[in-house]
């Protein structure tokens, strides 16, 4: 999987890693090579272009953290962007509905749909202790229903008894009823494949979807078909509400173009990959792990992460010392704001804290969104060094200037000054109580 891309990128970064300094020209040369490597891996052109643009922008603007080389920093940026390109977070199956949760499997003939249905059923049974039933709705291909029955026996998963001559929509109804009555957690519907994407197929999918209200609709596509796999996925996405993609035959795919472009082109996450003919050859698709596998530079990535943590800790300590002395100026406030922004903004910070959903909505209603952080930072930037040191120097005229200079209002400027004042007062109180340590003592 991804061997050729991995080799090519390895070569590019080997050249970058040892360099003491990296100019813009070096970054651009390296990115040209990365771009060729991506295109050779059969990544869709717009996806490759977008990727290169994002990495270049970040790499040229990047501050290099102490104790890593610029080349190492670039590896980290590429690794981050590769993870994003592959979909970011791992996307699990969402089956938290009133049972039976229906998983509808769709795809072209020969994509590996029936095999994958059995693989997922087995995985749900073994890993999550789910009671699973499978039903084949494929009345076009002779012996398709029989194939699923045999696979069911092999993995010890129940299949809906076959009634000759019954039509797909009726089979789906019968399967739902049986799964409900017999207390199954999950019902997997293996729909009929076709040679090409065609209208009768789409209509059938839609009709079944209406009856079964699937929690997941997974498209199975063959990774070996490269960009065709992505095109098939795009066509399906337009007609059927897909929740995810399974890429089969990743074991034979050295290029990886389908996996790399799928998310960006279709907007749908890859949930699993098939890695062999055996019934247990199925893996959850974890973008971070895959990106690590492609770059093969996990050591460099974690080094850069650790170095960044150290620098942040040093910054925080410096500010804490100033806090303790009661000297906290606008520059320090700006540092704090930048830090918040880096952590994903107010929305992300609040989103991370349990129970903050409601507060987040209130804050947003009051205009406290992420643009507020940027506005506050812009205000500090518009102040002179003297004013940052002693904000009490600001008179009405200067406040208007600063508001104009930062694209904000005098009210915004006043709000920020008030916030700084409140923080300083709080700090002085802490100092009176004998600093942080004294306060801790008082609290027992
Ligand atoms: P369907 O027509 O889409 O239902 O396809 P099948 O499930 O019958 O699979 C077609 C062939 O592909 C079978 O021989 C499978 O064993 C094979 N196959 C399915 N998934 C994979 C995979 O991930 N890797 C490999 N190497 N073969 C696979």
From TrEMBL:
Residues 269-282 form the SRP54-type proteins GTP-binding domain. Gene3D superfamilies: P-loop containing nucleotide triphosphate hydrolases (3.40.50.300), Signal recognition particle SRP54, nucleotide-binding domain (1.20.120.140), Signal recognition particle, SRP54 subunit, M-domain (1.10.260.30). It is a peripheral membrane protein. PROSITE patterns: SRP54. The keyword Plastid does not apply. It is found in: Cell inner membrane; Cytoplasm. Keywords: Cytoplasm, GTP-binding, Hydrolase, Nucleotide-binding, Ribonucleoprotein, RNA-binding, Signal recognition particle. It catalyses: GTP + H2O = GDP + phosphate + H(+). Its EC number is 3.6.5.4. SMART domains: AAA, SRP54, SRP54_N. Involved in targeting and insertion of nascent membrane proteins into the cytoplasmic membrane. Binds to the hydrophobic signal sequence of the ribosome-nascent chain (RNC) as it emerges from the ribosomes. The SRP-RNC complex is then targeted to the cytoplasmic membrane where it interacts with the SRP receptor FtsY. Interaction with FtsY leads to the transfer of the RNC complex to the Sec translocase for insertion into the membrane, the hydrolysis of GTP by both Ffh and FtsY, and the dissociation of the SRP-FtsY complex into the individual components. Part of the signal recognition particle protein translocation system, which is composed of SRP and FtsY. SRP is a ribonucleoprotein composed of Ffh and a 4.5S RNA molecule. Belongs to the GTP-binding SRP family. SRP54 subfamily. Composed of three domains: the N-terminal N domain, which is responsible for interactions with the ribosome, the central G domain, which binds GTP, and the C-terminal M domain, which binds the RNA and the signal sequence of the RNC. This is Signal recognition particle protein. The gene is ffh.
């Amino acid at each position: 999987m991804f061997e050729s891309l991995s080799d090519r990128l390895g070569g590019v970064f080997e050249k970058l890693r040892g360099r003491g300094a990296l100019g813009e020209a070096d970054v651009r040369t390296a990115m040209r090579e990365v771009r060729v490597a991506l295109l050779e891996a059969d990544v869709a052109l717009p996806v490759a272009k977008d990727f290169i643009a994002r990495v270049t922008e970040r790499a040229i603007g990047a501050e290099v953290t102490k104790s890593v080389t610029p080349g190492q920093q670039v590896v980290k940026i590429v690794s981050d962007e590769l993870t994003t390109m592959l979909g970011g977070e791992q996307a699990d199956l969402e089956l938290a509905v009133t049972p039976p949760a229906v998983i509808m499997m769709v795809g072209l003939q020969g994509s590996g749909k029936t095999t994958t249905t059995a693989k997922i059923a087995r995985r749900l049974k073994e890993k999550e202790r789910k009671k699973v039933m499978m039903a084949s709705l494929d009345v076009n291909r002779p012996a398709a229903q029989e194939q699923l029955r045999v696979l069911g026996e092999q993995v010890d998963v129940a299949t809906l008894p076959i009634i000759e001559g019954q039509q797909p929509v009726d089979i789906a109804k019968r399967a739902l009823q049986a799964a409900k009555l017999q207390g199954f957690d999950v019902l997997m519907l293996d729909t009929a494949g076709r040679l090409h994407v065609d209208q009768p197929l789409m209509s059938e999918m839609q009709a079944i979807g209406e009856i079964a209200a699937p929690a997941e609709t997974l498209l199975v596509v063959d990774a070996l078909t490269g960009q065709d796999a992505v095109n098939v996925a795009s066509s399906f996405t337009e007609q059927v509400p897909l929740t995810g993609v399974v890429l089969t035959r990743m074991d034979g795919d050295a290029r990886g173009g389908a996996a790399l472009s799928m998310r960006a082109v279709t907007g749908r996450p890859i949930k699993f990959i098939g890695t062999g003919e055996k019934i247990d050859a199925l893996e959850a698709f974890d973008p971070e792990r895959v990106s690590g596998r492609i770059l093969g530079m996990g050591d460099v990535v974690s080094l850069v992460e650790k170095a960044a943590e150290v620098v942040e800790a040093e910054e925080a300590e410096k500010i804490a010392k100033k806090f303790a002395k009661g000297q906290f100026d606008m520059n320090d406030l700006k540092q704090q704001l930048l830090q918040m922004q880096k952590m994903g903004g107010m929305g992300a910070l609040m989103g991370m804290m349990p129970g903050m959903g409601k507060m987040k909505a209130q804050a947003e209603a009051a205009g406290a969104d992420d643009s507020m952080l940027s506005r506050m930072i812009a205000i500090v930037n518009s102040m002179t060094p003297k004013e940052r040191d002693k904000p009490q120097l600001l008179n009405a005229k200067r406040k208007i200037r600063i508001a104009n200079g930062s694209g904000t209002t005098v009210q915004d400027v006043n709000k920020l000054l008030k916030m700084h004042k409140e923080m300083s007062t709080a700090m002085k109180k802490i100092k009176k109580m004998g600093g942080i340590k004294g306060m801790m003592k008082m609290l027992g």
